[in-house]
């Protein structure tokens, strides 16, 4: 028999994250384009980001070009590294209103989404600063500075809108990770997820 699940955060009822999810306004709108395979993942941080942000939307699939909001007077920027990517400091100088479009999935799947959506891939890109460290203790980062979707959004919004108020988005994220570690047991976590000591 399936465990009762919270309809909002889609976590098991006894691990419901809703009391920790904030309700944060932002001048910057956030559109997350989630690869369809990621939507079924237990550690789905994109859903948490959208639940915690009043000015955010989640779309799921692989083909997005036909439905991209391009002609609504809001400048869209792709939060994804690239050769000519702007820094967040440079983006602050650009006129508002602005929209961050955030691909969500593994790096391979995110690149596939860009390959399948030339209009999306042609948007100006914005990159996070170097040297960031993820709090995502359950996934090995594919490269230095790689963050989960929710962490990347928090860094970007804090930089664009000043202060650290978007850190509140990370409370349910950290509770989610703690619950997963508890479920797997500390022995399994230490064996599979902690770095080996040299």
TrEMBL record:
What GO annotations for molecular function exist for this entry?
A: tRNA-uridine aminocarboxypropyltransferase activity
Which Enzyme Commission numbers does its entry carry?
A: 2.5.1.25
Q: Which SMART domains match?
A: DTW
Descriptive protein name: tRNA-uridine aminocarboxypropyltransferase
Which keywords are on file for this protein?
A: S-adenosyl-L-methionine, Transferase, tRNA processing
Q: Which GO terms describe its biological process?
A: tRNA processing
Uppermost EC category: transferase
